[in-house]
Amino acid sequence: MFLSLGWLSAAVAGILSAHILQKTCFPYLWKDLFFLLKVMRYGVKLELYKLRSEVCTVMDRFIQQAQLIPDKPFVIFEGQIYTYRDVEQRSNRLAHIFLQNTNLRKGDCVALLMNNEPDFLCVWFALAKIGCSIAFLNTNIKSRSLMHCFTSCGAKTLVVGSDVADLLDGFLSTLLEDNIEVWAMKRSFEHPQVHTLLDKLDTASSKRVPAVPRTTNIKTPTLYIFTSGTTGLPKAAVISHLQSLKAAGGFWAFGGTQDDIIYIPLPLYHSAASLIGIGGTIELGATCVLKKKFSASQFWKDCRKYNVTIFQYIGELCRYLCNQPKTELDKVHKVRMGVGNGLRQDVWRDFQNRFGDIKMCEVYGSTEGNLCFMNHIGKIGTVGRSNFIYKLLFKYDLVKYDMVRDEPEKDEHGFCKRVLHGETGLLLSKVSALSPFFGYAGSKQLTEKKIMRNVFVKGDAYVNTGDLMAEDQEGFICFRDRVGDTFRWKGENVATTEVTEILGLVDFIQEVNVFYFYVSRVAAVIVRPDHHFDGKKLFECVVQNLPGYARPLFIRLQEEMEMTSTFKQQKFRLVQSGFDPSNISEPLFVIDYKLESYIPFTKTVYQSILTGERKL
To answer: Hey, which of 179, 186, 346, 486 has its CA 20 to 30 A from 526?
Structure first.
């Protein structure tokens, strides 16, 4: 008996010791294990789709949900409820209109230019039901970029929302000359060659579109979502059914359920709102509250009104919420989780201290990328978590990057050099069967430019994310910065080369170097000989040709541009000098919307920015 008690005591002691060891050395073991098992289960399902001829797409999943829960609210928009049946039937009507009145067929591409509204989803679903791929166009971009986006994805038809039809001004004639059909979500249109949809809805059939396989290959493109890169103009990222299905599992992976109400204040033409937000709502069979445009003053009122439990964010969104006046109702809500990216550590802490212990789930991954990190632990300041199992499935590396030369460091054999734990490096993601890279529509050169070859051994291929990251000893991954000629502003990727091209249209500008510094967008310019700087003329040019998030806030006049040894414009030292006029001997100008001009940036104006009297 005493012997048995001794063995029992030893076993208990061993279990306690193992538990203490696990808590001390591997504190996230069980959370990691359960999360990975969940993600792997979803991944196995996608792999089976690839092996079978029958493919269940996000669109197929929506049709299933419309049959299972037809009367459940799918979308709440401006107080009006649209059930799964409502969206299913309206999208069927639109599909029949397209089939009966156009030459659209399976495989054709249609461009969609609409703001957030239920009909964005209905048109999207209608086109998907007849087998078309859809290109989501950014409603902020101007005519020159808009035309480029339209042509780069090879669209045959353009559908515009009723409130953005004025964007057609300036290039409608060009579209019509190219025999492009234009449809508007209106009952009538002043131009006789623009077709209308709303006047045909009442008589269209709401029956399901004839069941023909939309695709037999999970890697077939279903969407084109535009992203800004270093080439200067937006690029059409190819979104396959595989990618859309992966994104749709995001909420579920973080613990979302069919009982959740998801708040989507982000634009649907971006992948976060469309792929993760709408796709995730469909996957769960949940309800989403769709906002036409984000409003910091209305955010929590909406959350309380609609009993929101999950919301989507970008880092700037949370900062705007923290800047709102404090109220007694700040913690009166049912929100339990936020899913998004770009949340700074200081904003993260302020947000949770003020609005309650909301689990913030950071997701890292570009629209066109083949790698995703998910911060399921919720550790502040990290975009994701990795471990040896994750690295077995998804191959990625952080390599040393020379910020001055603006290129990866190489060893004597010409291969990249990995960084140590804790060091900052350029994130590269290996192209493999598990992590394919679909690239961009149009020129193959755009896709090839994104790929680095012979990185560690001859013949390998990695996607260059353009992001500088760091991974600590525990496997937490932190975002540090972006490299190259692209920066992120208010959730939008801004290509400095595109801004440079627009500024180059001004007759008095000879050369331009655009860069990003903390909270400001700066353009260093050289004025042509025998010309003078005209702040009003430059203001008119940027307002007419660039969206608000891409317009330079500061203009810095230079006599000559500093170049790197490889004859690239030098941005590193310009970034270091900032925009304090006391540290810069060159003339500085700041944008002024009241005066509609770029005005001299004096010490007085600088102090007004620091005190908050003047907003950037």
So the answer is: 486
Classify 346 as helix, strand or coil: helix
Residues with Cβ within 8 Å of residue 376, at least 6 apart in sequence:
31, 35, 253, 254, 361, 385
- Token pair of 127 as six digits: 């086109």
Average pLDDT of the chain is: 85
342 neighbors 367 (Cβ within 8 angstroms): no
Instruction: Give the CATH number for residue 527.
Output: 3.30.300.30
∠ CA 121-122-127, rounded to 5°:
100
User: Given pLDDT bands bounded at 50, 70 and 90, which one contains residue 230?
Assistant: very low
DSSP 213: -
Given 265, 293, 321, the domain boundary residue is 293
Q: Which domain holds residue 214?
A: 45-293
User: How confident is residue 407, by pLDDT bands cut at 50, 70 and 90?
Assistant: confident
Same domain, 478 and 492: no
Q: Are 108 and 169 found together in one domain?
A: yes
CA distance 181 to 193: 8
Same domain, 456 and 493: no
Please check whether residue 227 is in contact with residue 450, taking contact to mean a CB–CB distance below 8 angstroms.
Answer: no
Asked if 319 contacts 347 with a C-beta cutoff of 8 angstroms, the reply is: yes
Q: How far apart are CA 404 and CA 336, in angstroms?
A: 43
470 and 507 fall within a common domain: no
> At residue 517, does pLDDT exceed 70?
no
In terms of pLDDT, which residue wins out, 43 or 374?
374
Q: Are residues 414 and 517 in the same domain?
A: no
Q: Among 259, 293, 327, identify where a domain stops.
A: 293
Please tell me the predicted confidence (pLDDT) of residue 88.
Answer: 97
pLDDT at 303 over 90: yes
- Reduced 3-state DSSP string for 269-319: CCHHHHHHHHHHHHHHCCEEEECCCCCCCCHHHHHHHHCCCEEEEEHHHHH
Give the orientation angle of helix 58-68 with respect to helix 118-129, to 10 degrees.
110
342 vs 350: CA distance, rounded Å: 15
Tokens of 342: 């770009």
Give the contacts of 521 (CB within 8 A, at least 6 positions apart): 487, 489, 494, 499, 514, 550, 551, 552, 553, 554
% of the chain surpassing 70 pLDDT: 86
Residue 475 sits in the same domain as residue 533: no
Average pLDDT in the 242-249 region? 92
Indicate if the pLDDT at residue 580 is higher than 80. no
Same domain, 502 and 480: no
pLDDT of amino acid 75: 98
